[in-house]
Fold this sequence. Notes:
Layout: E1 5-7, H1 11-24, E2 28-33, H2 40-44, E3 47-52, H3 63-73, E4 77-79, H4 90-97, E5 101-102, H5 107-113, H6 116-125, H7 141-151, E6 155-159, E7 168-171, H8 174-192, E8 197-201, E9 207-215, E10 221-233, E11 236-242, H9 249-265, E12 271-278, E13 284-290, H10 297-304, H11 308-316, E14 333-340, E15 342-343, E16 349-350, E17 353-354, E18 357-359, E19 364-366, E20 369-375, E21 382-383, E22 390-398, H12 401-413, E23 416-418, H13 424-432, H14 434-437, H15 445-449, H16 461-483, E24 496-504, E25 507-517, E26 520-524, E27 533-537, E28 545-550, E29 553-561, E30 566-570, E31 573-580, H17 582-588, E32 602-604, E33 609-614, E34 621-622, E35 627-633, E36 636-641, E37 646-651, E38 658-659, E39 664-668
Parallel strand pairs: 1-2, 1-4, 2-3, 4-5
Antiparallel strand pairs: 6-7, 6-8, 9-10, 9-12, 10-11, 11-14, 12-13, 14-22, 15-16, 17-21, 18-23, 19-20, 20-22, 24-25, 24-31, 25-26, 26-27, 27-28, 28-29, 29-30, 30-31, 32-39, 33-35, 33-38, 34-37, 35-36, 37-39
Amino acid sequence: MFKKILIANRGEIAVRVIKTCRRLGIPTVAVYSEADADSMAVEMADEAVFIGPPAPGDSYLRMDKILEAIKETGADAVHPGFGFLSENAAFPAELEKAGVAWIGPNVNAIEAMGDKIRSKQLAAKSGVSTIPGADGEINDADTAVAAAKAIGYPVMLKASAGGGGKGMRIAHDETEVREGFEAARNEARTSFGDDRILIEKFIVEPRHIEIQVMGDKHGNVIHLDERECSVQRRNQKVLEEAPSPFLDKKTRDAMGAEAVALAKAVDYDSAGTVEFIVDKDRKFYFLEMNTRLQVEHPVTEMTHGLDLVEQMIRSAAGEKLELTQREVKIDGWAVEARLYAEDPYRGFLPSIGRLKRFTEPEEGNLAGGTLRIDSGVREGDEISLFYDPMIAKVIGYAKTREAAIDTLAAALDRLHVEGLQSNAPFLSAVLDEADFRSGRINTGYIAEHFPEGFNGTAPREDQLVYIAAAASYVHEVMERRAAQTDGRLADAPVEVTREWVVLMDGRNIPVEVEMSALGKASLWIPSLRPERITLETAWLPGNVLFEARIDSEDYAVVFSNKTEGYALRHRGYSVTALVCTPRSAELHALLPEKEKADTAKLVISPMPGLIVKVDVEEGQEVKAGEALLVVEAMKMENVIRAEKDGTIKSVNVEAGASVAADELMIEFA
């Protein structure tokens, strides 16, 4: 076994590898950029080495700096995590020269399968069904247009190297091909240091299903069944699960056998993933092979009782696989949600900043299942514009799919983020959707179910009860606290019934609250439930989570004070509630509504970022939908388009400049 492992990565995956190494008794070394100096990975590792500025090209993609860190610390093995150098064959080649072990597949396998163009050619040669597309890489936009016409629209443009949704675009016409080619190539260059692009047919209503493979250095390769990764946004996976609710045993076995055969063809000897596109008739096509650990590996670990990082370490150390294919069994169901720092109410734009508050439920038993959380950040950390915006991976496991979803939903109810926005409300909304619950999903699921973007969900009656009860109870406690001279809470000396009105979303909801003791109350919400309800809670002022039991129902509402009222969220429904007396509610209805500022002529930066390209100039006439400029943040390029026809009055930014959130970039006449 290895004496010391250096992790050539950052964030959540670095923390994940450190946890396994700790359990195995192996010391670890973290490398870090300026932006990650105070990160959780640096804190947890036994040693840490500084490798440069925040930009990946100046730090995490610098092989020379990582090799220096290896020499400095005496590490005898390297785990690359995912992204960055994990699929760069030159890196393990350099490690081999230095006599350092690579915790990943052999160089020949990476070269053969890590490159999407070569892997597709090898798969076709091996008799594996592949997606129709152009042969080889595409070097310019004109060639891309010609290839797209030959293949037939829609087409997919994607980076030959890397993955994770970076450097991928779907195009339905020539204009989208030209725009998508440049954007995909730029993202590929920034994320992977490789700007080669391939183009292929886009399968309509596809499901993205992948097979986890694991090999050793003794010729053994097994598959650990499949993961369904069809719920995606901009080709970035959002929710993953194992097993797939769509596959039958015949298809599962066929896909697994094909994945193993392909892996054996390149003597695969570590963890890897063979990805397939599956159509509505369960016909599958080879998509690519990722020669690394996948972000979504926890769902496979939960359903197979394995630690894939440990298996990679043992394989790299020359040990044989501990399982045969016959011994591999699926046990239960696991569903994973990627919690991102992004604003779902503003087109999922990155939300960069400091995690002023970040609370999460404890791992373990929750809502009839088991909760697991993989995170690389904690309260007080900053989400930087230089890296992926992931906050955490939240995984629910249970014996059935429905129960696993319930556990995951309950966990998201109990997550609280302040200082920046997160996609938790959106994730919760998807988990509540009938089509998702029934397994009717494909890679176009989000676009189909949220065609106008995400604007929250309409509240169900039970949610209105939960939120009205939470708001009125909190207000009652705060009022009683304010009335006590010593400022301390105590059991109510007598049972006092008070009437409140909860104002939210244009509704006036009368609530009668009778507290028998702190944490126990009887409520009557006549407009929502005819009978009185009992509420029990351990909530105290200062808590950001309101967990309670109403009659026999357990629920959690994320809660925070605002200048006026309370901000509350349950699943995909978020609202600001004002609690007042009946007379105040009458007077409140007479107040005039505040007029919104007119910003129709202003193009404001929706996030901090870097101006990659400016497509317009002063005096130019533009049409609605026309590209104005491109802002890059968190390794993704975001095209800002005109919302209506007009003439450009002024352009206040230029390519290469940094912009802050809400900064004025362009003004219309």
